[in-house]
Amino acid sequence: MVLYRIGEIVYKNNQNLIFESQGVGYSIIFPDHARVEAKQKHKLYLYEIKNDYTWSLYGFKDFKERLLFVDLINLNGIGPRVAFNILNQGWEKIASLIALGKVDHLIEIPYINPRIARLVISELQDKWAKMTNNIDAQKQVKNSNLLGEAKETLKMLGFKAAQIDSALTKVDLNQDVESMIEEAIKFISQSGAHNEQLSA
C-alpha cells in the first residue's frame, strides 16, 4: 500500500486533482481542495478504494485527516462519498466537533442525518478527543463514561430511571464514580422525603 506521494498538482477542479509524481499522473479525489494550489509541490497522503464497483484514489494533506477518513468509512452506513462530504467541511473542524460530541453541528452537514451523527460521536469521540489533544473534550468523555457507569449501578440498586436522571444532573462530576453514586442516592432520598411531606 502506498501511504503518500510527493509531487506536483498539475490541475484541480471542485473535487479532483491531477497529481504527477515521478512521471506518473494520478487522478485523486481531494476534500477541501482550496487548501492546495496547482503548479506547486505537495506531499499527499493516499487511500485507495478498489472493489467490483469502483476504483478510486483519495488524497489528504495531513496524515490525521487520512486517519479520520478511514475511521469514518469503517462505520456502518458511511461510505467514501459521505466521508468525503464530511471532510470537505475541514477535517480539523470535524475532528473538534467529534471530540466535543457536537451532534447538532454534525447534523447541519449535507447528507448527515441524526442517526449517522450520533453513530460518529458514539464510536469516535473518545479516540479523537485524544487525537486532537482537546483537554475539555477528554474531560467531557471521561465524565460521560463515569455518568454511564453510575447510572447502570443505580439501576442495579433498584432506583427508577426518572429518579436517576434527576439526581445525576445535580452531582459533582469532579469525583470518582463511587462518590457520584453516593451523592446521587442522597439526592434521591432527599427528593423522596420532600415528596412525602407534600403528600402528607
From TrEMBL:
Hydrolase among keywords: yes
Which keywords annotate this record? ATP-binding, Cytoplasm, DNA damage, DNA recombination, DNA repair, DNA-binding, Helicase, Hydrolase, Nucleotide-binding
GO CC field: cytoplasm; Holliday junction helicase complex; Holliday junction resolvase complex
The cellular location(s) given in this protein's UniProt record come to: Cytoplasm
For the DNA helicase Holliday junction RuvA type domain, which residue ranges apply? 1-59
GO terms under biological process: DNA recombination; DNA repair
- Stretch list, region Domain II: 62-139
Q: Does the keyword ATP-binding apply?
A: yes
Main location (coarse class): cytoplasm
Entry's Gene Ontology molecular function annotations: ATP binding; four-way junction DNA binding; four-way junction helicase activity; hydrolase activity
Q: What region holds the Holliday junction DNA helicase RuvA C-terminal domain?
A: 146-189
- Region listing for Domain III, in residue ranges: 143-200
Q: Which family does it belong to?
A: Belongs to the RuvA family.
What is the annotated quaternary arrangement, including any partners? Homotetramer. Forms an RuvA(8)-RuvB(12)-Holliday junction (HJ) complex. HJ DNA is sandwiched between 2 RuvA tetramers; dsDNA enters through RuvA and exits via RuvB. An RuvB hexamer assembles on each DNA strand where it exits the tetramer. Each RuvB hexamer is contacted by two RuvA subunits (via domain III) on 2 adjacent RuvB subunits; this complex drives branch migration. In the full resolvosome a probable DNA-RuvA(4)-RuvB(12)-RuvC(2) complex forms which resolves the HJ.
Explain the purpose of this protein.
The RuvA-RuvB-RuvC complex processes Holliday junction (HJ) DNA during genetic recombination and DNA repair, while the RuvA-RuvB complex plays an important role in the rescue of blocked DNA replication forks via replication fork reversal (RFR). RuvA specifically binds to HJ cruciform DNA, conferring on it an open structure. The RuvB hexamer acts as an ATP-dependent pump, pulling dsDNA into and through the RuvAB complex. HJ branch migration allows RuvC to scan DNA until it finds its consensus sequence, where it cleaves and resolves the cruciform DNA.
Q: What is known of its domains?
A: Has three domains with a flexible linker between the domains II and III and assumes an 'L' shape. Domain III is highly mobile and contacts RuvB.
This chain belongs to the protein called Holliday junction branch migration complex subunit RuvA
